[in-house]
Amino acid sequence: MTEAVSAGPARRRRRRLNWVPYALLAPGMLWLIVFFAVPTVSLVSQSLQTGDVFNGYTLTWHVQTYVDALSTYWPQLVRSLVYAGLATVFTLLLGYPLAWFIAHRSGRFKNVLLVLVIAPFFTSFLIRTLAWQTILGNGGLLETTTDALHLSWLLHGFESFLGLVGLGTGNQLLYTPFAVVAGLTYNFLPFMVLPLYANIERLDLRLVEAASDLYATPASAFRKVIWPLSLPGVVAGTLLTFIPAAGDYINSVLLGSTQTVMIGQVIDSQFLRVLNYPLAAALSVSLMALIITFVTVYVRRAGTEELV
Amino acid sequence: MSWLRRHTVQVIGLLVMAYILLPNLVVLAFSFNKPNGRLNITWQEFSFDAWLNPCDTPGICSSVGLSLKIGIIASLTATVLGTLVAFALGRHRFRGRAGTNVLIFMPMATPEVVMGSSLLTLFIALGVGTGQTTILIAHIMFCLSFVVVTVKARIASLDPRLEEAAADLYASPAQAFRRVTLPLVAPGIAAGALLAFSLSFDDYIITNFNASPSSVTFPMYIWGAAQRGVPVQVNVIGSVLFLAAVAFVGIGQLLAAGRQRARA
Amino acid sequence: MTEHGSGDLRLSSVTKSFERFTAVDDISLTIPQGSFFALLGPSGCGKTTTLRMVAGLEQPTVGTIHIGDADITSLKPYQRNVNTVFQSYALFPHLNIIDNVAFGLRQRKDGDWKRKAQEALDLVELGHTAKKKPTQLSGGMQQRVALARALVNRPDVLLLDEPLGALDLKLRRQMQLELKRIQSEVGLTFIHVTHDQEEAMTMADTIAVMNGGRIEQLADPSTLYEKPASTFVANFLGQSNLLPAEVSAEVASVESGVVTVRTRDHDDIAVAAEHLPPGIRSVWVGVRPEKLRIGEAGRNRLRGVVTDASFTGVATQYLVRLPWGKELVVVQQNDGSGRLPVGENVTVSWDPGQEFILDQAQDADAGVEIDDD
Q1: What is this model's ipTM?
Q2: Which of A203, A247, C87, C136 would be a feasible disulfide site paired with B113, CB 3.0-4.6 Å?
Q3: Residue from the list B159, B171, B264 with its beta carbon closest to the beta carbon of C88
């Protein structure tokens, strides 16, 4: 029946090539062109200009700025991608069970839990990140609690472990790479959970039964049936986490140290304090280029092109 | 042990929920603290001081006011523009659709620091001074895509036959839109507006690039305060926002559930 | 003034072409006012497109549509007095039941909408659901609301697009009778689109069987079944045994209206002369399975072997293979006679006049095994 029915309305609309959609698009698209697309061009242009704040800039195609920028700040750039990658992996590891729990195991508390996942959004990002200072800091909530429970050895053990794997200094949690990654993970977790939830909620649990009926162990049922079906949610969630995390610097400023400086921080200070616009613009363009490359490769690999 | 095996998902889920909510609880708890000196990091003594005098720190309430003002204007504008775009994408066929989709998607795939800095280069190139207007422009820009995506999803979930049914029942296109399409898309528009408001209200990075010393939003105020020690009032305002959001959505859920029960 | 009834629906040479195919190919039809008409055919046959053109949801590429003397071809859906019961019901989820039913009335500023809508709901026996929302109703109830919402406007023509497709079998049977009752009560023209031949035969006064965008045959249900005009109709409505045969001058003897034709096995078969289309020598002799008898009761007799027997409750269906390989379907009532084992040699017989005859140039398999959904 589908052919004749569904072809009908769609085709009728296709024939009517009128001005209405363009009128609807115009204001919003103009806004994005003028305040997103044009600035992007302006950013690239700025990165190729020479001059200074007082005498103005001229476009000189000075590519050397990129060489200087990258040779000086490649550690911060790489660090940003590594931290964002780690945070993405952790949000997935934490977010998947949570999304599954909310979607299939929470019964009548489903809506309450969803609200509680979204609600922290409404408290400022900054306030919540600052709360981690209170929790992780020396003499903070975590330390007081472990002391009271006589579990300080566990905390110290964990700190030493972090020191060994290069995510900590060995004697504290706050102001370490661990704190930055934990902050990023925390801050972007809802961005992972919501698309995953939307996807997992629609999964038919009878598929698991069908798989186990066909001799799949729970693990292989997950690997062969559930995971492939939840991939669209995973792809959406990882992108929504990785991209903003790579450019974020709130976590590294508030929870990190001079050893955890991320690229966003450098761009911010070059633009707003050092006033070296071409260098800052070159770093911005480089970050964007790296992310676009990464996302393209990743999406191709995952085989999901439909993102919007 | 077997209990744990059967309830692994529940246990992990609840632990992750705790991780998500812990900072909010800490913020709430420390809003009742009476710190010794500037730093509100260790617990001293219980007090209602900050709750009774939320504006008792210079600049804090004016920054909240500015954030509310920008949030409301930006979210309303972005909602109107984004809804129009969503209808074009969801209900019409036209040339240039792929390009439109890319332009909608890109701001969501661009780190804030890149968007903020590129907008700043434009304002510099044009010689425009930064301030409230530039903040508004930036906020409308990055909220727009989120509104489009939210509203478009709602439109896509509508059965196109409902509009045909309305036409069949003597509704002109304009009447069908007003009586059928718009009421059905309204929840999506509301969700988009709410999302836009929360994004705008919470934004620091883009705002910071496009603000001036005289246009201090609430996140900028906190950022500044974080260097010196955050006043307890910040915790109060953060908690109020959190509790208001929970109450707002919670009451909505209760009303919806009540209506369901009344009808059944 | 006109030879047509005041409210007859007329489609004249209507064609609907899309970019890549022609959905409806030069259809002309007159549907008398007050009749229950069915458009029957497999998916993609053009029946839904035809319906949508009557509703105004599609524009014909060529041709005109009239109701009585009024040309409605280019009227918008909201300008024509035609209402549709949609396949998925398309009830407005944000409106309660009474507001759904009253939608058309209020759109037309009918001051008496409250009473009329309530009456229409009562007619479909759902008066008590007025304040509920569509999602709170079962599929069958939603279907009846959709019907009430269309009926209440007293349209010139009421269109039903596979309205029972989503219901389970038992409910479907019940709704078929219900629809029939309502139609005779209100006396409106109903056009019912379906791929279910049994449904069409149960309900409609007249059926147009569509295939490939054209009308294969337009007739009342019993004519369609007894005298199908094409192999497609013969196979799509019920089962048919089609035997190839030649009308040869030598054996053809006209004796009390009976003509003899010769099958491939040189068996002679007597057929009613009036069934034989003039000027055709190669024919299909079609016999419905329930017209065949195991045994020698009929005048035409063929010998064969039982290759399959399946018990269906009221009847047993046999497959009987003829010497040249053709398998006949034979349905015997379970009237107490014993069942035959597979492998048994049997005689299959029937009387002249129980057959229908088609041109052998047509494809014997047209319309076979077209199962929707």
Answers
A1: 0.89
A2: A247
A3: B159
